[in-house]
Amino acid sequence: MLARLRLDPFLMILLAVLAAATLLPVRGGAAIVADHVTDVAIALLFFLHGAKLSRAAILAGIGAWKLHLLVLSATYALFPLLGLAIVAALGGAVDPLVAMGVLYLAILPSTVQSSIAFTAISGGNVPAAICSASLSNILGILLTPLLAAWLIGGHAAGGGFFLQAVTSIATQLLLPFILGHLARPWIGGWIDRHRQLVTRVDRGVILLVVYTAFSAAVVAGLWTRLSLADLATIGAICAVLLAAVLLLTSLATRLSGLPRPDAIVLVFCGSKKSLASGVPMAGALFPAAQVGVVILPLMLFHQLQLIVCSVIAARLARQNDATEEPDHVRRTA
To answer: How far apart are CA 300 and CA 307, in angstroms?
Structure first.
């Protein structure tokens, strides 16, 4: 039934974690221990991300430089501009932390797994998708905190940005990522053979970060601060943002004259935002009491992008099947 409704089962688990954080938030000394455990888990997550990164796959798709520039432009220029425009248009109509969350969503790297999967289903250039998505995430470890300091830093409470934030990202995310990639010659084979286990660790860390973040937010009065109308507004913002990016990236594929396989990569890699990178980064960038609210737009956008892009991928796959049918089959049909 979940498959027919196009709902991600992981979203259901996330909702259960939110309910647990609402009803049983971690407090006091337990919260301090949970924060330390979360920091270690995040470092492990980015170590595994580095170890998963295949240089061979990147080299296979790196020649499509025009495509990669377009994907990076969509991720780190188009998205932030649209985010700024939406926040400016809303004025003071939304909670300041929600506005920060929209801007934070806009400056995150693209996804890796889902971008590659949708590209493969649609008949796109898979090596180029691997290269674009990986490059987006590598650069995001540096670009996201720098863009956050520039676009959000002046409005963030608690000193969560600037030198402290960049130092936190470097030690908690970038260093483990580099160490993991350097260790790939020794552990890469094991990682490749146990990708499902790595994915479970990936998602487990996200759930842990979400639980600790929302626990802190609940203790700080999250649900007295936001109403159902606020959640509906966040959903509408995410829908407008996704629609605008899909429309503009599709237009860019026509104006740039990209071949169909590369055009598919631009649409999917250029329209995604990574929950796997975004949630841990938020924990490093924002004060604990703010993280729960800040990542709400990202969580809603994540599910929305999966639903919409799965529909687009299915339509493109049907078009490919129709194109590849022999003439006598089409005449018989």
So the answer is: 11
**Residue pLDDT, tens place only, 25-58:** 998 888 889 888 888 888 888 888 888 877 776 7
Closest CA to 308 of 266, 267, 261, 279: 267
Angle at 115 between CA 285 and CA 181, to 5 degrees: 60
Secondary structure (3-state) at 202 = helix
Burial class (CB in 10 A: 0-12, 13-18, 19+), 190: exposed
Helix axes 228-256, 260-270, angle to 10 degrees: 160
DSSP 123: T
Instruction: Single out the residue of 156, 198, 185, 195 nearest to residue 289, CA to CA.
Output: 156
pLDDT digits (tens, 9 = 90+) for 99-124: 999 999 999 999 888 888 899 889 99
| Three-state secondary structure call for residue 194 | coil
Give CA–CA dist 262/132, Å, rounded: 11
Give one DSSP letter per residue of 281-329, joined into a string.
HHHHHS-HHHHHHHTHHHHHHHHHHHHHHHHHHHHHHHHHHHHHS-HHH
What is the pLDDT confidence band of residue 158, given thresholds at 50, 70 and 90? very low
String of DSSP letters for 102-119: HHHHHTSPPPSHHHHHHH
